[in-house]
């Protein structure tokens, strides 16, 4: 990518080369033949936007005259944080196929709490090879460090899965919309992972990386052209990530998920699609921490999202709200805001995002909130019933919503702040406190113990409690450890037969451990039980 700069200073960011020009070094005319060519998979050009000439209108504070560049697909404008951008207007003109288009406004995107640079929403330009910028301010003050970023996302192939929410003909035109239905369990929709769309590695996001729970969803748009092919969607997501990381100096892409017009759902910020990952989507740190940010790919000022996008949004948001046992309608408190469970970006900060047509769809009769509410209305599961029976002081918030796990017993799990709840053919049981720590150390339901088959209960000794699992038992001994002791297989069978905590061995003092080859040993107050390599079990009193 050739930049529109004269003297160029090199700066390396996030593993590829970015070039920054000083405002007084911007040349006129066409770029020189010897200007820098970027060859990284995602190329980002960043050039300063100089102060406006004196003869311009008084409210025009910065202006970059139309200049040719190498090809790019996405553009955004940034500036140093700390400027009061109330009323600030940023416009760009782009050159495509030899012609200069009309001025397009880039909406200011506040990202309080994320750090980095202030800036606008990015604009997907399709194919462009020239840019002009105009910045106006009602105060006549100019933000420091104004710069325009032009991004070529490269051609990394994304092996995107086909959306299952709609049907298409050969031209990718939607033919019919699949019904939302009302499942008893809202399964996770098909999601294009970061590795499939070619994500750059996160630069390391600040703590807290995740919140305690997802309380609601905030809906956005990416802005820019609605004319893109299904195969271009991954490039749009890569370009948005490049702008957020290199133009805005964020640690990663700002959204948790992105949904294209074909119904494809893309994983956004790293950290796990099932977890309440804190993103940079809302412009408020508390809202970022306790909501999922979903951005629809396109501009929706006058036209609603496609039916495929709408159906995918219902399934995506319905999955998260359903499995975390939150309603789709009504309000809740987060930070200094009272928001609808499904809110628009404009409900948090002063922006037009997600566009008037999309915003109207959120609350319309039969719109997003109504459809998600209907979609999750029949959600019913033993885990949900158990959570409803217990108080938040006992369970804590839902950190990872209900999801299937694979064991011989089958079943599902939900991870809450203080307990994990498992449901299988053996029943529905909570695992918490020291039992949870030991169970996690053993590999949870996929480890040697298998799924839980009982709740924690007392034993004949007041100092010992136990919880049973498919293949073993965890014992909690008061005052001896911060976690329980797991026994399984033939060692646990032998301990049970000789009387467990009432036996001559007494209570466990250490977890059962491999001592060599296929030999395992468990330690007790008055001896040990050893499983020998040949499968025999011996009891030794101390």
Q: Give the number of helices.
A: 10
Give the distance, in angstroms, between the N- and C-terminal Cα atoms. Answer: 76 Å
Morphology: elongated
Helix content: 10-25%
Strand content: 25-35%
Structural class: alpha+beta
Quaternary state of the chains: single chain
Q: Please state the CA-atom Rg, rounded to the nearest Å.
A: 29 Å
Chain-averaged pLDDT: 84
Beta strands, count:
33
Let me know the largest β-sheet.
9 strands, antiparallel
Poorly predicted ranges (pLDDT <50, ≥5 residues)? 1-40, 159-178
Q: How does this model look, in words?
A:
It is a single chain. The protein has 542 residues and is α+β, with helices and mostly antiparallel strands. The chain has ten helices and 33 strands. Strands 3, 4, 5, 6, 7, 8, 9, 10 and 11 form a nine-stranded antiparallel sheet that branches. Strands 14-17-16-18-15-21 form a six-stranded mixed sheet. The radius of gyration is 29 Å and the shape is elongated. The relative contact order is 0.08.
């Amino acid at each position: 990518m050739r930049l529109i700069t004269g003297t160029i200073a090199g700066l390396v960011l996030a593993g590829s080369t970015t070039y920054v020009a000083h405002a007084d070094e911007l040349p006129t005319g066409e770029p020189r033949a010897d200007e820098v060519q970027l060859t990284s998979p995602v190329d980002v050009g960043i050039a300063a936007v100089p102060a406006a000439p004196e003869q311009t209108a008084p409210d025009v504070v910065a202006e970059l005259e139309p200049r040719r560049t190498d090809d790019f697909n996405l553009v955004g404008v940034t500036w140093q944080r700390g400027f009061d951008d109330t009323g600030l207007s940023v416009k760009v003109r782009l050159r495509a196929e030899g012609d200069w288009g009309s001025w397009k406004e880039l909406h200011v995107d506040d990202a309080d709490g994320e750090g980095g640079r202030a800036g606008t929403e990015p604009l997907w330009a399709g194919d462009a090879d020239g840019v002009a910028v105009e910045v106006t301010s009602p105060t006549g003050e100019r933000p420091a460090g104004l710069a325009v970023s032009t991004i070529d996302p490269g051609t990394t192939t994304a092996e995107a899965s086909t959306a299952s929410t709609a049907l298409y003909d050969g031209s990718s035109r939607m033919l019919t919309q699949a019904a939302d239905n009302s499942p008893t369990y809202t399964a996770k929709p098909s999601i294009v992972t970061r590795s499939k769309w070619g994500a750059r590695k996160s630069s390391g996001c600040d703590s807290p990386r995740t919140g305690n729970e997802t309380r609601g969803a905030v809906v956005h748009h990416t802005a820019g052209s609605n004319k893109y092919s299904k195969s271009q969607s991954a490039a749009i997501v890569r370009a948005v990530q490049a702008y957020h990381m290199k133009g805005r100096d964020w640690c990663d892409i700002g959204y948790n998920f992105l949904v294209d017009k074909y119904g494809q759902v893309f994983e956004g910020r790293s950290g796990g699609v099932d977890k309440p990952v804190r993103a940079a989507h809302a412009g408020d740190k508390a809202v970022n921490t306790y909501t999922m940010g979903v951005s629809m790919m396109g501009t929706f000022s006058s036209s609603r999202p496609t039916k495929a996008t709408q159906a995918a949004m219902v399934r995506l948001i319905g999955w998260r709200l359903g499995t975390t046992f939150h309603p789709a309608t009504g309000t809740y408190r987060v930070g200094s805001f009272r928001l609808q469970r499904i809110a628009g970006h404009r409900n948090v900060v002063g922006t037009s995002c997600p566009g008037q047509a999309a915003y109207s769809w959120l609350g319309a009769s039969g719109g997003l909130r109504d459809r998600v509410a209907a979609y999750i209305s029949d959600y019913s599961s033993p885990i949900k019933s158990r959570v409803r029976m217990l108080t938040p002081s006992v369970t804590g918030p839902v950190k990872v919503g209900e999801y299937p796990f694979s064991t011989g017993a089958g079943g599902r799990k939900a991870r809450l702040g203080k307990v994990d709840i498992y449901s299988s053919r053996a029943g529905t049981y909570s695992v918490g406190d020291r039992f949870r720590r030991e169970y996690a150390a053993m590999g949870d339901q996929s480890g040697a113990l298998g799924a839980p088959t009982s709740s924690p209960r007392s034993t004949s000794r007041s100092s010992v409690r136990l919880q049973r699992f498919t293949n073993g038992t965890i014992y909690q001994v008061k005052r001896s450890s911060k976690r329980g002791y797991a026994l399984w297989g033939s060692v646990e069978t032998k301990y049970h037969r000789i009387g467990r905590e009432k036996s001559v061995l007494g209570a466990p003092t250490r977890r059962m451990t491999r001592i060599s080859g296929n030999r395992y040993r468990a330690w007790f107050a008055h001896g040990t039980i050893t499983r020998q390599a040949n499968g025999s079990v011996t009891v030794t009193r101390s």
